[in-house]
Amino acid sequence: MSELLYGSTRGAAGKVTASQAILKGLADDGGLFVPDGIPVLPMSMKELSGLSYQETALAVMKEFLTDFTEEELRACIDGAYDDKFDTKEIAPLKEADGVYYLELFHGPTIAFKDMALSILPYLMVTAAKKNQVENEIVILTATSGDTGKAALAGFADVPGTKIIVFYPKDGVSPIQKKQMVTQKGANTFVVGIHGNFDDAQSGVKAMFGDEELKKELDACGYQFSSANSINIGRLVPQVVYYVYAYGRLLQQGAVEDGEEINVTVPTGNFGNILAAYYAKLAGVPIGKLICASNENKVLFDFFHTGAYDRNREFILTSSPSMDILISSNLERLVYRIAGNDAGQDAALMKTLSETGRYEITEEMRAGLSDFAGGFAGEADTAEEIRAVYERTGYVLDTHTAVASYVGRNYRKVTKDDRKMVVASTASPYKFTRSVMEAIDGKYDGMEDFALADKLAEISGVPVPAAVEEIREAKVLHKTVCEASEMKAAVKSFLGV
Ligand SMILES: *Cc1c(COP(=O)(O)O)cnc(C)c1O
User: What is the pLDDT along the chain (496 residues), one digit of tens a residue?
Assistant: First the structure.
């Protein structure tokens, strides 16, 4: 098999192998790594539909990560997708209310980030060995709530690594926060910042681009890598579950072989939906990719006007993992619709960093025809949770509800009635307060864990272990700092 190389969306960095791209996270020129071409699935959907999740993962990932041996990939996959997940299917598909919810929250931290972050540490350590890396790897991560915990859980006590997570102190749910600040592991470090997710992400990006800091770290035997969704080691494992979902539909006879489905994804950093797009390009029969936003609807506006404009108020919503104004992975789509023209992409990204805004050409807009954009306001989201629960007894989390509402609305407006898969990105237990208040105002003011017990009662789904284990857990991380002090916090933690 010929090797698939990765280059930067901004073009100035050379080509690297998949394992090098995973180790680096971000390209040296500040761009994102993209494969030289999207590989085509190695078997028909019919054949793929007979495979387990782990076998599907191997079939897909070996096409993208060509410098890993099959044995290495198998070891990574078996280490990641084991009984940390509370179901053998790993990503079950549940039909409710006329759509198929692809439940991506059965991992250790009950959000879809586990799908990629349970395997990333294995890929990273394998990549380090492969490239004779002697330094200890320091994972530096900004989180809007879910990535942080999933990355902490994945990297805790992994030899040869340390992990540092920054989260917006007042921008995550109480359960999300408790999950992070109670994280065990001598190599973990969790910091709340006074600021929002974009501040945290900008601070992290600045450290990645800081040559001085890089030298200081290297002298002490450290190097940074990223567990954020810009890392292709996260993107590639996410392609897997779209292949798997189509396989399940085919196996159940819900679709004919080759019949197109639509996919709606609750979107923040544009990683999950980009993986769905890659799955489509690789051969999964997907029609429209419907990008669902909450009130921070910068992506909705982009799809409707061709202008990306982050100059707006940042709104805290009940779907905090989507409260993002700079969707990093969108750059990979922009690069593609620019005809893989790194110069054009780099110019747009420069304009974005200077003015907070850019506009794509008419020609580029034509490249967006696979996508549709929609958004749900806070009231729409709450109403969707209540209505789906009342009709079916199935309880959606707030993020999934945004997508569910947007998907339903898309269907109504366009009359496009292809089968719909909605990416279900979190367990309702992760956002219990918002979910329960949406279902009935009488739950307003109840204590968080009491609400979890109530949710178990009304949904018939038991409280997940991830919630049980933090009820009584001790807070181990109390550091809080200004966004401007993030670098100092990192240096102090590492003793640099
Ligand atoms: C991270 C996250 C999202 C957004 O996913 P992106 O890949 O960043 O677009 C949506 N829902 C939940 C629950 C998340 O944790």
Answer: 589 999 999 997 789 999 999 999 889 898 999 999 999 999 999 999 999 999 999 999 999 999 999 999 999 999 999 999 999 999 999 999 999 999 999 999 999 999 999 999 999 999 999 999 999 999 999 988 788 999 999 999 988 999 999 999 998 888 889 999 999 999 999 999 999 988 998 999 899 889 999 999 999 999 998 888 899 999 999 999 999 999 999 999 999 999 999 999 999 999 999 999 999 999 999 999 999 999 999 999 999 999 999 999 999 999 999 998 989 999 999 999 999 999 999 999 999 999 999 999 999 999 999 999 999 999 999 999 999 999 999 999 999 999 999 999 999 999 999 999 999 999 999 999 999 999 999 998 898 899 999 999 999 999 999 999 888 899 999 999 999 999 999 999 999 9
Residue 397 CA: nearest ligand 1 atom is 13
Report the predicted TM-score, pTM, of the whole model to 2 decimal places. Answer: 0.94
Ligand 1 pocket test: which of 32, 267, 296 has the largest number of ligand atoms within 8 Å of its C-beta? 267
Among 270, 321, 375, name the best residue to mutate to test ligand 1's pocket (greatest count of ligand atoms within 8 A of Cβ): 321
Encode 266-302: b = buried (16+ Cβ within 10 Å), e = exposed: bbbbbbbbbbbbbbbbbbbbbbbbbbbbbbbbbbbbb
Among candidate residues 62, 113, 177, 288, the one labeled active-site is 113
Closest ligand 1 atom to Cα of 112:
15
Annotated catalytic residue 162: no
Residue 190 CA to residue 390 CA, distance in Å, equals: 39
Beta strands in 234-381 (DSSP E): 261-266, 286-293, 307-309, 357-359, 371-375
Domains of the chain: 93-110+233-461 (3.40.50.1100)
